[in-house]
Design goal:
The chain is an alpha+beta fold and 127 residues long.
């Protein structure tokens, strides 16, 4: 086991390095026809782990059997966009999705008020 588990971990770390590079955090700039540059910015979270064990040699003798495993994961979350126009940089944050019912209701209030207002405006125009 002394070499098998570290080799498995190193292979997993290498694969994660191949998946995540600087372009995962600061994305490629996007040019619009009107001269605006948009740069996406993300948060990258990485996790991995592994474990293993040597088992007692069987009747056949030889090397001690080894059992183990390694796993990893990468999460890329957009957090904002940098907008560059005429030498001015603005940051447009990407809001986190609502996690509770109360948060969802609060997010729906402006849209609901707009729909109610449009409904009453159309009713007033019909009169």
């Amino acid at each position: 086991m002394s070499q098998k588990l570290p080799n498995m971990l190193e292979n997993t770390i290498q694969k994660i390095r191949e998946l995540v590079d600087v372009n995962s955090v600061i994305g490629e700039p996007i040019q619009t026809p009107d001269g605006v540059t948009i740069i996406p910015v993300s948060r990258v979270s990485v996790g991995f782990g592994g474990g293993g064990s040597d088992f007692a040699a069987g009747k056949t003798g030889g090397d001690t059997p080894f059992g183990g495993g390694v796993g990893g994961g990468v999460k890329v979350t957009p957090i904002c966009f940098l907008v560059i126009k005429d030498g001015t940089v603005r940051m447009l944050a990407v809001p986190e999705p609502a996690s509770t019912t109360a948060d969802r209701i609060v997010e729906m209030v402006p849209d609901t008020l707009e729909k109610i207002s449009a409904f009453f405006d159309s009713k007033n125009q019909d009169k």
